[in-house]
Write a structure and sequence with these properties.
The complex is a heterodimer of chains A (285) and B (190).
Chain A lengths: L1 E5 L10 H13 L2 E5 L8 H7 L1 H18 L3 E3 L2 H16 L16 E3 H9 L1 H5 L10 E5 L8 H4 L9 H8 L3 E2 L13 H4 L1 H17 L4 E4 L2 H9 L1 H8 L7 E3 H8 L5 H5 L7 H6 L4
Parallel strand pairs in A: 1-2, 1-3, 3-4, 5-6, 5-7, 7-8
Helix pairs in contact in A: 1-13, 2-3, 3-4, 5-8
Chain B lengths: L13 H11 L11 H5 L10 H10 L2 H5 L3 H4 L5 H5 L6 H14 L8 H16 L4 H20 L1 H9 L13 H11 L4
Helix pairs in contact in B: 1-7, 8-9, 8-11
Classes of the chains: A alpha/beta (285), B mainly alpha (190).
Protein backbone atom coordinates (compact mmCIF):
# COMPACT_ATOMS: atom_id res chain seq x y z
CA UNK A 1 0.00 0.00 0.00
CA UNK A 2 1.37 3.40 -1.04
CA UNK A 3 0.10 6.44 0.83
CA UNK A 4 0.17 9.97 -0.56
CA UNK A 5 -1.42 13.34 0.17
CA UNK A 6 -4.18 14.28 -2.23
CA UNK A 7 -5.22 17.77 -3.29
CA UNK A 8 -8.37 17.44 -5.45
CA UNK A 9 -9.00 21.16 -6.01
CA UNK A 10 -12.35 22.90 -6.29
CA UNK A 11 -13.42 21.51 -9.69
CA UNK A 12 -13.10 17.89 -8.63
CA UNK A 13 -15.70 18.56 -5.96
CA UNK A 14 -17.99 20.12 -8.58
CA UNK A 15 -18.02 20.02 -12.37
CA UNK A 16 -15.24 17.44 -12.53
CA UNK A 17 -16.84 14.99 -10.10
CA UNK A 18 -16.24 12.04 -12.40
CA UNK A 19 -12.51 12.84 -12.41
CA UNK A 20 -12.48 12.63 -8.61
CA UNK A 21 -14.61 9.49 -8.51
CA UNK A 22 -12.52 7.69 -11.12
CA UNK A 23 -9.26 8.85 -9.51
CA UNK A 24 -10.32 7.39 -6.18
CA UNK A 25 -11.53 4.12 -7.73
CA UNK A 26 -8.41 3.59 -9.84
CA UNK A 27 -6.09 4.49 -6.95
CA UNK A 28 -7.75 1.93 -4.74
CA UNK A 29 -7.23 -0.77 -7.38
CA UNK A 30 -3.58 0.22 -7.67
CA UNK A 31 -3.04 -0.01 -3.93
CA UNK A 32 -2.70 3.73 -3.49
CA UNK A 33 -4.25 5.40 -0.47
CA UNK A 34 -5.13 9.02 -1.28
CA UNK A 35 -5.16 10.95 1.99
CA UNK A 36 -7.06 14.13 1.14
CA UNK A 37 -5.24 17.15 2.51
CA UNK A 38 -7.14 18.26 5.59
CA UNK A 39 -8.94 21.62 5.21
CA UNK A 40 -7.25 22.51 1.89
CA UNK A 41 -8.18 25.81 0.23
CA UNK A 42 -8.41 27.01 -3.38
CA UNK A 43 -5.06 27.52 -5.15
CA UNK A 44 -6.26 30.88 -6.52
CA UNK A 45 -5.96 29.74 -10.15
CA UNK A 46 -5.58 32.42 -12.84
CA UNK A 47 -7.70 34.98 -11.06
CA UNK A 48 -5.30 35.36 -8.15
CA UNK A 49 -2.16 35.82 -10.25
CA UNK A 50 -3.93 38.26 -12.57
CA UNK A 51 -4.89 40.33 -9.53
CA UNK A 52 -2.21 40.20 -6.84
CA UNK A 53 1.18 38.50 -6.56
CA UNK A 54 0.84 38.40 -2.79
CA UNK A 55 -2.51 36.59 -2.87
CA UNK A 56 -1.29 34.29 -5.67
CA UNK A 57 1.42 33.10 -3.30
CA UNK A 58 -0.49 33.11 0.01
CA UNK A 59 -3.32 30.83 -1.17
CA UNK A 60 -1.17 27.89 -2.36
CA UNK A 61 1.30 28.52 0.47
CA UNK A 62 -1.28 27.54 3.08
CA UNK A 63 -1.81 24.21 1.28
CA UNK A 64 1.91 23.58 0.96
CA UNK A 65 2.44 24.19 4.66
CA UNK A 66 -0.41 21.82 5.50
CA UNK A 67 1.13 19.18 3.21
CA UNK A 68 4.56 19.80 4.67
CA UNK A 69 3.24 18.86 8.11
CA UNK A 70 1.99 15.55 6.69
CA UNK A 71 5.26 15.02 4.81
CA UNK A 72 3.98 12.79 2.01
CA UNK A 73 4.12 13.62 -1.71
CA UNK A 74 1.19 15.79 -2.77
CA UNK A 75 -0.71 14.37 -5.74
CA UNK A 76 -2.71 16.84 -7.81
CA UNK A 77 -5.12 15.87 -10.62
CA UNK A 78 -5.89 19.43 -11.82
CA UNK A 79 -3.33 21.07 -14.13
CA UNK A 80 -4.02 24.58 -12.84
CA UNK A 81 -3.77 23.63 -9.15
CA UNK A 82 -0.63 21.66 -9.96
CA UNK A 83 0.93 24.68 -11.62
CA UNK A 84 0.02 27.14 -8.86
CA UNK A 85 1.24 24.80 -6.11
CA UNK A 86 4.54 24.16 -7.87
CA UNK A 87 5.10 27.83 -8.71
CA UNK A 88 4.49 28.75 -5.06
CA UNK A 89 6.76 25.95 -3.88
CA UNK A 90 9.62 27.26 -6.07
CA UNK A 91 9.07 30.80 -4.84
CA UNK A 92 9.00 29.78 -1.18
CA UNK A 93 12.09 27.59 -1.43
CA UNK A 94 13.99 30.39 -3.17
CA UNK A 95 12.91 32.99 -0.60
CA UNK A 96 15.98 34.09 1.32
CA UNK A 97 14.24 36.65 3.54
CA UNK A 98 12.98 33.95 5.93
CA UNK A 99 16.33 32.10 6.00
CA UNK A 100 17.15 30.79 9.47
CA UNK A 101 13.74 31.73 10.91
CA UNK A 102 10.94 29.39 11.97
CA UNK A 103 8.89 30.72 9.07
CA UNK A 104 11.27 29.34 6.45
CA UNK A 105 9.37 26.94 4.24
CA UNK A 106 11.03 23.54 4.35
CA UNK A 107 9.14 21.49 1.75
CA UNK A 108 10.41 17.95 2.07
CA UNK A 109 7.90 16.38 -0.29
CA UNK A 110 7.11 16.53 -3.99
CA UNK A 111 4.13 18.08 -5.76
CA UNK A 112 3.17 15.72 -8.60
CA UNK A 113 0.52 15.62 -11.27
CA UNK A 114 -1.62 12.50 -10.98
CA UNK A 115 -0.65 11.13 -14.43
CA UNK A 116 3.07 11.47 -13.67
CA UNK A 117 2.52 9.82 -10.30
CA UNK A 118 0.72 6.84 -11.82
CA UNK A 119 3.32 6.38 -14.53
CA UNK A 120 6.53 7.14 -12.63
CA UNK A 121 5.77 5.97 -9.10
CA UNK A 122 3.03 3.36 -9.36
CA UNK A 123 4.48 2.03 -12.60
CA UNK A 124 3.63 -0.06 -15.63
CA UNK A 125 3.71 -3.48 -13.98
CA UNK A 126 1.24 -2.60 -11.23
CA UNK A 127 -1.09 -0.99 -13.77
CA UNK A 128 -0.85 -3.94 -16.19
CA UNK A 129 -1.65 -6.25 -13.30
CA UNK A 130 -5.08 -4.63 -12.93
CA UNK A 131 -6.09 -4.64 -16.61
CA UNK A 132 -8.92 -7.10 -17.13
CA UNK A 133 -10.50 -5.50 -20.22
CA UNK A 134 -7.84 -3.98 -22.48
CA UNK A 135 -9.11 -1.08 -24.57
CA UNK A 136 -8.16 -2.61 -27.94
CA UNK A 137 -9.72 -0.80 -30.88
CA UNK A 138 -10.23 2.48 -29.06
CA UNK A 139 -8.32 5.19 -30.92
CA UNK A 140 -7.51 8.30 -28.94
CA UNK A 141 -5.20 11.25 -28.56
CA UNK A 142 -3.90 12.48 -25.21
CA UNK A 143 -4.41 16.16 -24.60
CA UNK A 144 -2.30 17.73 -21.84
CA UNK A 145 -3.10 21.41 -22.29
CA UNK A 146 -0.82 24.13 -20.97
CA UNK A 147 0.07 23.79 -17.35
CA UNK A 148 1.07 20.15 -16.92
CA UNK A 149 4.26 20.96 -18.81
CA UNK A 150 4.62 24.76 -19.00
CA UNK A 151 6.59 26.65 -17.99
CA UNK A 152 9.55 24.28 -17.47
CA UNK A 153 10.93 26.53 -14.73
CA UNK A 154 7.87 25.46 -12.74
CA UNK A 155 7.32 21.89 -13.98
CA UNK A 156 10.97 20.83 -14.44
CA UNK A 157 10.09 18.89 -17.60
CA UNK A 158 12.71 18.54 -20.31
CA UNK A 159 10.37 18.43 -23.31
CA UNK A 160 7.42 20.77 -22.69
CA UNK A 161 6.00 20.20 -26.17
CA UNK A 162 5.84 16.44 -25.97
CA UNK A 163 4.71 15.03 -22.62
CA UNK A 164 4.24 11.25 -22.51
CA UNK A 165 2.74 10.25 -19.15
CA UNK A 166 -0.88 9.91 -20.31
CA UNK A 167 0.22 8.37 -23.63
CA UNK A 168 2.12 5.71 -21.69
CA UNK A 169 -0.78 5.05 -19.34
CA UNK A 170 -3.22 4.69 -22.24
CA UNK A 171 -0.89 2.36 -24.14
CA UNK A 172 -0.54 0.25 -21.00
CA UNK A 173 -4.31 -0.23 -20.79
CA UNK A 174 -4.34 -1.30 -24.45
CA UNK A 175 -5.68 1.75 -26.28
CA UNK A 176 -4.62 2.77 -29.78
CA UNK A 177 -2.80 6.02 -28.94
CA UNK A 178 -2.43 8.34 -31.93
CA UNK A 179 0.35 10.84 -32.42
CA UNK A 180 -0.66 14.48 -32.91
CA UNK A 181 0.94 17.90 -32.67
CA UNK A 182 -1.62 19.53 -30.41
CA UNK A 183 -0.88 17.82 -27.08
CA UNK A 184 -0.04 21.06 -25.33
CA UNK A 185 -2.01 23.67 -27.27
CA UNK A 186 -4.29 25.91 -25.20
CA UNK A 187 -8.07 25.31 -24.90
CA UNK A 188 -8.76 28.95 -23.96
CA UNK A 189 -9.34 28.14 -20.27
CA UNK A 190 -11.63 30.70 -18.57
CA UNK A 191 -12.25 32.48 -21.86
CA UNK A 192 -15.09 30.00 -22.37
CA UNK A 193 -17.07 32.25 -20.00
CA UNK A 194 -15.52 35.65 -20.66
CA UNK A 195 -14.62 35.58 -24.39
CA UNK A 196 -16.53 32.52 -25.63
CA UNK A 197 -15.88 33.12 -29.35
CA UNK A 198 -12.15 33.16 -28.73
CA UNK A 199 -12.24 29.94 -26.71
CA UNK A 200 -14.52 28.21 -29.20
CA UNK A 201 -12.12 28.87 -32.03
CA UNK A 202 -9.27 27.34 -30.01
CA UNK A 203 -11.37 24.33 -29.04
CA UNK A 204 -12.58 23.73 -32.58
CA UNK A 205 -9.00 23.47 -33.79
CA UNK A 206 -8.26 20.83 -31.16
CA UNK A 207 -11.36 18.83 -32.08
CA UNK A 208 -10.49 19.01 -35.79
CA UNK A 209 -6.88 18.00 -35.27
CA UNK A 210 -7.80 15.08 -32.98
CA UNK A 211 -10.15 13.76 -35.64
CA UNK A 212 -7.56 14.25 -38.35
CA UNK A 213 -5.18 12.14 -36.25
CA UNK A 214 -7.79 9.35 -36.35
CA UNK A 215 -8.93 9.63 -32.74
CA UNK A 216 -12.45 8.60 -31.67
CA UNK A 217 -12.08 10.47 -28.42
CA UNK A 218 -9.77 12.84 -26.56
CA UNK A 219 -8.17 11.99 -23.23
CA UNK A 220 -7.56 14.75 -20.70
CA UNK A 221 -5.82 15.24 -17.37
CA UNK A 222 -7.24 18.66 -16.55
CA UNK A 223 -10.77 19.56 -15.40
CA UNK A 224 -10.71 22.90 -17.24
CA UNK A 225 -9.64 21.36 -20.58
CA UNK A 226 -12.12 18.50 -20.24
CA UNK A 227 -14.99 20.78 -19.39
CA UNK A 228 -14.16 23.25 -22.20
CA UNK A 229 -13.85 20.60 -24.89
CA UNK A 230 -16.91 18.69 -23.70
CA UNK A 231 -19.27 21.60 -23.17
CA UNK A 232 -18.38 23.79 -26.14
CA UNK A 233 -19.17 21.26 -28.86
CA UNK A 234 -22.89 22.03 -28.95
CA UNK A 235 -22.27 25.77 -29.42
CA UNK A 236 -19.48 25.23 -31.96
CA UNK A 237 -21.71 22.85 -33.96
CA UNK A 238 -24.55 25.38 -33.96
CA UNK A 239 -22.38 28.31 -34.94
CA UNK A 240 -20.21 26.66 -37.59
CA UNK A 241 -22.73 24.20 -39.03
CA UNK A 242 -20.17 21.42 -38.64
CA UNK A 243 -21.41 18.71 -36.29
CA UNK A 244 -19.09 17.76 -33.42
CA UNK A 245 -19.63 14.86 -31.06
CA UNK A 246 -16.23 13.83 -29.73
CA UNK A 247 -16.22 12.24 -26.25
CA UNK A 248 -13.71 13.88 -23.90
CA UNK A 249 -12.59 11.43 -21.23
CA UNK A 250 -10.35 11.65 -18.20
CA UNK A 251 -7.45 9.20 -18.36
CA UNK A 252 -8.59 7.84 -15.00
CA UNK A 253 -12.02 6.95 -16.43
CA UNK A 254 -10.41 4.85 -19.17
CA UNK A 255 -8.09 3.20 -16.65
CA UNK A 256 -11.18 2.36 -14.59
CA UNK A 257 -12.86 0.93 -17.68
CA UNK A 258 -9.82 -1.25 -18.42
CA UNK A 259 -9.75 -2.37 -14.77
CA UNK A 260 -13.39 -3.51 -15.06
CA UNK A 261 -14.66 -0.99 -12.52
CA UNK A 262 -18.45 -1.41 -12.05
CA UNK A 263 -18.92 2.37 -11.51
CA UNK A 264 -17.85 3.49 -15.00
CA UNK A 265 -21.44 4.00 -16.18
CA UNK A 266 -21.99 6.57 -13.44
CA UNK A 267 -18.91 8.56 -14.47
CA UNK A 268 -19.81 8.48 -18.16
CA UNK A 269 -23.36 9.65 -17.43
CA UNK A 270 -21.92 12.95 -16.18
CA UNK A 271 -20.49 13.95 -19.57
CA UNK A 272 -22.19 16.32 -21.98
CA UNK A 273 -21.00 14.37 -25.04
CA UNK A 274 -22.01 10.88 -23.93
CA UNK A 275 -19.06 8.51 -24.43
CA UNK A 276 -21.18 5.37 -23.98
CA UNK A 277 -22.35 4.92 -27.61
CA UNK A 278 -18.71 4.96 -28.80
CA UNK A 279 -17.56 2.57 -26.09
CA UNK A 280 -20.47 0.21 -26.79
CA UNK A 281 -19.68 0.29 -30.49
CA UNK A 282 -16.10 -0.72 -29.68
CA UNK A 283 -17.40 -3.58 -27.53
CA UNK A 284 -15.95 -2.03 -24.36
CA UNK A 285 -19.23 -1.50 -22.49
CA UNK B 1 -12.08 44.86 -30.23
CA UNK B 2 -10.37 48.12 -29.41
CA UNK B 3 -7.64 49.40 -31.69
CA UNK B 4 -4.87 51.01 -29.71
CA UNK B 5 -4.12 54.54 -30.92
CA UNK B 6 -0.43 55.33 -30.90
CA UNK B 7 0.84 58.90 -30.60
CA UNK B 8 2.23 60.40 -33.84
CA UNK B 9 5.53 61.24 -32.30
CA UNK B 10 7.02 58.82 -29.80
CA UNK B 11 9.56 60.00 -27.29
CA UNK B 12 10.98 56.96 -25.49
CA UNK B 13 10.35 57.05 -21.76
CA UNK B 14 12.61 54.56 -19.97
CA UNK B 15 11.19 55.33 -16.52
CA UNK B 16 7.86 53.76 -17.49
CA UNK B 17 9.60 50.66 -18.81
CA UNK B 18 11.66 50.43 -15.63
CA UNK B 19 8.51 50.69 -13.54
CA UNK B 20 7.04 47.60 -15.26
CA UNK B 21 10.39 45.82 -14.97
CA UNK B 22 10.46 46.49 -11.26
CA UNK B 23 6.88 45.38 -10.65
CA UNK B 24 7.26 42.19 -12.69
CA UNK B 25 10.84 41.37 -11.82
CA UNK B 26 11.39 40.70 -15.53
CA UNK B 27 14.05 42.35 -17.68
CA UNK B 28 11.86 43.54 -20.55
CA UNK B 29 14.78 45.43 -22.08
CA UNK B 30 16.41 42.08 -22.91
CA UNK B 31 13.88 41.59 -25.72
CA UNK B 32 15.46 41.82 -29.20
CA UNK B 33 12.18 41.46 -31.10
CA UNK B 34 12.70 37.93 -32.45
CA UNK B 35 8.89 37.48 -32.47
CA UNK B 36 9.03 33.96 -31.05
CA UNK B 37 6.39 34.92 -28.47
CA UNK B 38 4.02 36.16 -31.15
CA UNK B 39 4.58 33.17 -33.41
CA UNK B 40 3.77 30.70 -30.62
CA UNK B 41 0.87 32.63 -29.13
CA UNK B 42 -2.48 30.83 -29.65
CA UNK B 43 -4.63 33.96 -29.26
CA UNK B 44 -2.98 36.53 -31.55
CA UNK B 45 -6.10 36.33 -33.75
CA UNK B 46 -8.02 38.17 -31.04
CA UNK B 47 -5.31 40.64 -30.03
CA UNK B 48 -4.90 44.26 -31.10
CA UNK B 49 -1.23 44.29 -30.04
CA UNK B 50 0.53 40.99 -30.71
CA UNK B 51 2.91 40.08 -27.86
CA UNK B 52 6.21 41.32 -29.31
CA UNK B 53 4.60 44.63 -30.24
CA UNK B 54 3.24 45.00 -26.71
CA UNK B 55 6.76 44.42 -25.40
CA UNK B 56 8.13 46.96 -27.88
CA UNK B 57 5.65 49.56 -26.66
CA UNK B 58 6.83 48.89 -23.12
CA UNK B 59 10.41 49.50 -24.30
CA UNK B 60 9.31 52.90 -25.50
CA UNK B 61 7.46 53.61 -22.27
CA UNK B 62 3.98 53.52 -23.81
CA UNK B 63 2.53 51.68 -20.82
CA UNK B 64 -0.90 53.35 -20.92
CA UNK B 65 -1.41 52.19 -24.50
CA UNK B 66 -0.69 48.60 -23.46
CA UNK B 67 -2.95 48.86 -20.40
CA UNK B 68 -5.83 49.93 -22.65
CA UNK B 69 -5.27 47.11 -25.12
CA UNK B 70 -7.29 43.92 -25.60
CA UNK B 71 -4.05 41.99 -25.43
CA UNK B 72 -3.61 41.96 -21.66
CA UNK B 73 -7.12 40.50 -21.22
CA UNK B 74 -7.09 38.19 -24.25
CA UNK B 75 -3.83 36.55 -23.10
CA UNK B 76 -4.89 33.14 -21.78
CA UNK B 77 -1.76 32.65 -19.61
CA UNK B 78 -0.88 29.50 -21.54
CA UNK B 79 2.83 30.11 -20.79
CA UNK B 80 3.99 29.36 -24.35
CA UNK B 81 5.78 32.72 -24.73
CA UNK B 82 7.35 32.38 -21.29
CA UNK B 83 8.59 28.90 -22.25
CA UNK B 84 10.07 29.92 -25.60
CA UNK B 85 11.56 33.38 -25.05
CA UNK B 86 15.28 33.06 -25.89
CA UNK B 87 16.03 35.89 -23.48
CA UNK B 88 14.22 34.20 -20.64
CA UNK B 89 11.64 36.94 -20.19
CA UNK B 90 8.63 35.57 -18.37
CA UNK B 91 6.16 37.37 -20.63
CA UNK B 92 3.18 35.70 -18.93
CA UNK B 93 4.31 37.31 -15.69
CA UNK B 94 4.65 40.67 -17.43
CA UNK B 95 1.04 40.26 -18.61
CA UNK B 96 0.00 39.59 -15.00
CA UNK B 97 1.78 42.75 -13.91
CA UNK B 98 -0.02 44.74 -16.60
CA UNK B 99 -3.41 43.29 -15.60
CA UNK B 100 -2.73 44.15 -11.97
CA UNK B 101 -1.58 47.62 -12.92
CA UNK B 102 -4.63 48.25 -15.10
CA UNK B 103 -6.94 47.28 -12.24
CA UNK B 104 -5.04 49.30 -9.68
CA UNK B 105 -4.91 52.41 -11.89
CA UNK B 106 -8.59 52.10 -12.71
CA UNK B 107 -7.96 51.80 -16.46
CA UNK B 108 -11.22 50.95 -18.20
CA UNK B 109 -10.69 47.36 -19.36
CA UNK B 110 -11.21 46.87 -23.11
CA UNK B 111 -12.58 43.39 -22.37
CA UNK B 112 -14.55 43.97 -19.20
CA UNK B 113 -15.70 40.35 -18.83
CA UNK B 114 -12.25 39.11 -17.94
CA UNK B 115 -11.68 41.24 -14.81
CA UNK B 116 -15.35 40.70 -13.87
CA UNK B 117 -14.71 36.97 -13.95
CA UNK B 118 -11.61 37.30 -11.79
CA UNK B 119 -13.56 39.36 -9.31
CA UNK B 120 -16.41 36.80 -9.11
CA UNK B 121 -13.89 33.97 -8.77
CA UNK B 122 -11.94 35.68 -6.00
CA UNK B 123 -15.14 36.71 -4.17
CA UNK B 124 -16.10 33.09 -3.93
CA UNK B 125 -12.68 32.12 -2.54
CA UNK B 126 -12.76 34.97 -0.06
CA UNK B 127 -16.18 33.92 1.21
CA UNK B 128 -15.62 30.16 1.44
CA UNK B 129 -11.89 29.45 1.09
CA UNK B 130 -12.72 27.43 -2.02
CA UNK B 131 -14.55 28.29 -5.20
CA UNK B 132 -18.23 27.48 -5.10
CA UNK B 133 -18.62 27.07 -8.86
CA UNK B 134 -22.38 27.53 -8.97
CA UNK B 135 -22.30 30.74 -7.00
CA UNK B 136 -19.30 32.04 -8.98
CA UNK B 137 -20.97 31.34 -12.35
CA UNK B 138 -24.22 33.04 -11.28
CA UNK B 139 -22.34 36.01 -9.82
CA UNK B 140 -20.24 36.44 -12.99
CA UNK B 141 -23.21 36.11 -15.34
CA UNK B 142 -25.22 38.65 -13.37
CA UNK B 143 -22.31 41.11 -13.37
CA UNK B 144 -21.51 40.66 -17.06
CA UNK B 145 -24.90 40.17 -18.69
CA UNK B 146 -27.49 40.82 -16.02
CA UNK B 147 -30.63 38.82 -15.41
CA UNK B 148 -31.21 38.21 -19.14
CA UNK B 149 -27.79 36.61 -19.39
CA UNK B 150 -28.65 34.39 -16.47
CA UNK B 151 -31.89 33.28 -18.14
CA UNK B 152 -29.91 32.31 -21.26
CA UNK B 153 -27.82 29.99 -19.11
CA UNK B 154 -30.80 28.08 -17.69
CA UNK B 155 -30.51 25.15 -20.10
CA UNK B 156 -26.76 24.77 -19.43
CA UNK B 157 -27.45 24.92 -15.71
CA UNK B 158 -30.12 22.27 -16.03
CA UNK B 159 -27.82 19.99 -18.06
CA UNK B 160 -25.17 20.32 -15.36
CA UNK B 161 -27.72 19.73 -12.61
CA UNK B 162 -29.07 16.51 -14.09
CA UNK B 163 -25.49 15.27 -14.40
CA UNK B 164 -24.93 15.81 -10.70
CA UNK B 165 -22.39 18.58 -11.26
CA UNK B 166 -24.09 21.40 -9.42
CA UNK B 167 -23.52 21.78 -5.73
CA UNK B 168 -26.11 23.91 -4.04
CA UNK B 169 -24.32 24.33 -0.74
CA UNK B 170 -20.97 26.12 -0.54
CA UNK B 171 -17.86 24.37 0.81
CA UNK B 172 -17.07 24.86 4.51
CA UNK B 173 -13.52 25.42 5.67
CA UNK B 174 -12.26 25.59 9.22
CA UNK B 175 -9.52 27.97 8.05
CA UNK B 176 -12.00 30.44 6.54
CA UNK B 177 -10.71 33.22 8.78
CA UNK B 178 -7.13 32.70 7.57
CA UNK B 179 -8.29 33.05 3.96
CA UNK B 180 -10.16 36.29 4.69
CA UNK B 181 -7.01 37.62 6.35
CA UNK B 182 -4.93 36.80 3.25
CA UNK B 183 -7.27 38.90 1.11
CA UNK B 184 -7.15 41.74 3.59
CA UNK B 185 -3.36 41.65 3.77
CA UNK B 186 -3.01 41.60 -0.02
CA UNK B 187 -5.52 44.44 -0.33
CA UNK B 188 -7.79 42.39 -2.59
CA UNK B 189 -11.49 43.07 -2.14
CA UNK B 190 -12.75 40.19 -4.33
Amino acid sequence: MVEVSYYPGCSLHGVAREYNESTEAVSEKLGVNLAELEDWNCCGASSAHATSNELALALPERNLRLASQVGMDLIVPCAACYSRLRAAEKELLADTTTEGSADKYQGGFEVKHLADFFWEDVGEDTILGQVTRPLGGLSLVCYYGCLITRPPRVTDVTDPDNPESMDNLMKTVGADVRAWSYKTDCCGAGHILTLPRVAQRMIQKLLDMAQEAGADCIVSGCPMCQSNLDRAQEDISRETGKKYSVPILYFTELMGLAFGDPEVGKWFSRHIVDPRPLLKQKGLL
Amino acid sequence: MSIVQLPQEIIPNPSQRKMVEELSGERISACFQCEKCTNGCPVTFAMDLVPHIAIRLLHLGLVDEVLRSDTIWVCASCETCATRCPNNINITRVMDTLRQLAQREGVRPSQRNVPLFHSAFLSSIRRHGRVHETEMAVDFTLKSEGIRGLLKQVSTGLAMFTRGKIKLLPPRLRGKRQIKDMFKKAGVKG
